[in-house]
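Recall that a protein's primary structure is simply its ordered list of amino acids. Everything else, from secondary elements to tertiary packing, is in principle encoded there. The following example makes that idea concrete.
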Amino acid sequence: MAGERKYVSAEELKQHNKPDDLWISIQGKVYNVTDWAKVHPGGDIPLLNLGGQDVTDAFIAYHPGTAWKYLDKFFTGYHLKDFKVSEVSKDYRKLANDFSKLGLFEKKGHGVLYSFSIIGFLLMACVYGILCVEGFWVHFLCAALLGFLWIQSSYLGHDSGHYQMMSSPGFNKLAQILIGNCITGISIAWWKWTHNAHHLACNSLDYDPDLQHIPVFAVSSKFFNSMKSIFYGRTLKFDSIARFLVSYQHWTYYPVMCGARINLFLQTLLLLFSGRNVPDRTLNILGICVFWSWYPLLVSCLPNWGERVMFVLVSLAVTSIQHIQFTLNHFSADVYVGGPAGNDWFEKQTGGTIDISCSTWMDWFHGGLQFQLEHHLFPRLPRCHLRSISPVVKELCKKHNLPYRSLSFWEANVSTIRTLRTAALQARDLTNPVPKNLVWEAANIHG
């Protein structure tokens, strides 16, 4: 019969999950995104990780309403048989729709202007202090100011990567290169590559790169089995060196965080000069060249090598505040093994995130990431709205008996160290390599 619908089952859809045969379902309609994955603005990783599934919730989270009209050209003509929407997803989609009707995704407030002003002021103060003022402690303060500048720039770059904070896509890309590559030395291309994967596979041990820190850290004893990283495409080998380092990770955590920015510099260079398909590679490399021109030049203006070494170490150490924040949001949250599933988007985000409770006047300090769950559920929502939607998200979690964890900065640190210590003690136990339940262990460990 003409116009009769054609259907595929969920099992049949799962077969189309390969780079050369990639299908997804959105609202029960099946789309072939094999070719689109190669030019997808968010990279191919999100589509590959969610291939062969219904991805409606993830699509809603990451795309504005204007994106729906582009789906028709990918439609296969098939619909998903027995397509059902869970009660949690119904509530989540209604909430996203309500926020859209209120215009929250478009109302960005004055945060961008304030952030640019703060960054500009810190940069001028730092340069002035080095070039025009003598004295060790003044230069020490300048190094700290530069570290805070990098933190605020990273928050702004994070915003620009999730939503268009400027008046046009072109200006938004320019802002990304300026505040990311040129000022912080971290490529926006690298950030998009890893961060999109992190959001979609939040706290998956083998899919989320933000948990894959072998040989230095292991948040779960499952890493002791030399797990394969799907993201990096290699085995995270847990050898004798890794065992030794992990055994003391609760002691080395803060010192490592002080130098964590160096790892991001290296990761940026490894990606930009790799064989991977990197969007705007030339522009990203030019931005990195700008950073590695002005930063060493500024350091060279200091009067002696002692102050130069001090300046570099202090500026890097101050950024540890931000790296600690990143890990507090996830290290002691729930973890799992396997790829992300399109049918439990809301549940996975609630399980893999921890909010940091703070006063309103401290929102600038955390860059909006203190509302980690709210951000993960609505990544396109400007940070100025995250506090206001927090009670609504909390009520939704309560309604569906899902975790909503909000800890003070101190409590989050204690929880993270406890998780690291639990894994460290397990790593020392050479006679018992079998993975244990870290949540139970963390709650019951003594000493």
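Residues 434-447 have pLDDT under 50 and may be disordered. Strands lie at 6-8, 17-18, 21-26, 29-32, 75-80, 228-229, 234-235, 355-357, 406-408.
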